[in-house]
Amino acid sequence: MPDRFDTEILPADAHGIARAVGWIAAGQPVAMPTETVYGLAADARSGEAVARIYAAKGRPAFNPLIVHVPDGRTAEALARFDPPARRLAARFWPGPLTLVLPLAPQAAIAGLATAGLPTIALRVPAHPVMRAVLEQAGCPLAAPSANASGTISPSRAEHVARTLGGRIPLILDGGATAHGLESTIVAVEADRLRLLRPGPIDAAQLAETAGVPLAGPAAARIEAPGQLESHYAPSKPLRLNATHSRPGEWMIGFGPIPGDATLSAAGDLVEAAARLFDLLHEADAAEAPGIAVAPIPAEGLGTAINDRLRRAAAPRAAASGLPRSG
Ligand code: TXA
Ligand code: MG
Prior knowledge:
This protein has 326 residues and is of the alpha/beta class. Helices cover 32% and strands 17% of the residues. A hairpin with a 4-residue loop joins strand 2 and strand 3 (38-43).
């Protein structure tokens, strides 16, 4: 259940930006303009802050989010940059380009922000409002488009208010966005680029700048956002709706049902979402040959948690082909 708010809409001036920074420090998501679309931004280091993005959007599934940083130097602390990635960053940042890169091993990024993947999507935005928030908040910001799941991406503060009003504390109004279209997303691999989402920056320009080919034909390789084939899944069998562990199972508890670890002893779905990927990784790394998970209520964020658990429990071939909505 998302929290209820009397959503404030403030001009994106110094006062509004200071309010936004205060809410972000308090672990809440805030809507703000970027040069592409309005983003719903929260502290990417905090699983609970990221969980509140999903709760506000009412997303039925966890997709990895784009992590926004103020500059290339900050980005380099979070991911591995090979020369092609460096060339792309030097030419197109700040700007509407998102790079998917190997996550740095010790990067302080919540597992929920990357959906447990070993890669991270990074962008240095050009919009002065989001840049000011990034600098003053002093943390990376996870930010999907600031609209409720299944609705159109917002290019004005009014669009944000239409679907997220009452669900978030604050919308910074910085007028209409320049592009009105989400950033281009490209995965930078050892010897090629893969276009994951077309956007304002043209694919041909990317290959030319990076000095490595775009895996082609480009059109055939495009994965619709949210339809990732490589979502994190544990390597061993996972049993759902378990009220007790059986021999050989590492148990993930919830609410009154205990386990080797619990998603949330208090039965809090925000806390459970925040811990989900960390506990799946921990269960996967444990010696037990199986994993069991307590039942999670199918409401609010519980819908997305159950979606992820069902995928993790499904046989691999079936899990990889399922469509996802975002
Ligand atoms: O223009 C934009 O990019 C806007 C503004 C707010 O910056 N943000 C945005 O974020 O569109 P979001 O979170 O809705 O985009 C997420 C998409 C996912 O659906 C997925 O396709 C891709 O980014 N993505 C994120 N992390 C990924 C990863 N590790 N591997 C592959 N794709 C990833
Ligand atoms: Mg979106």
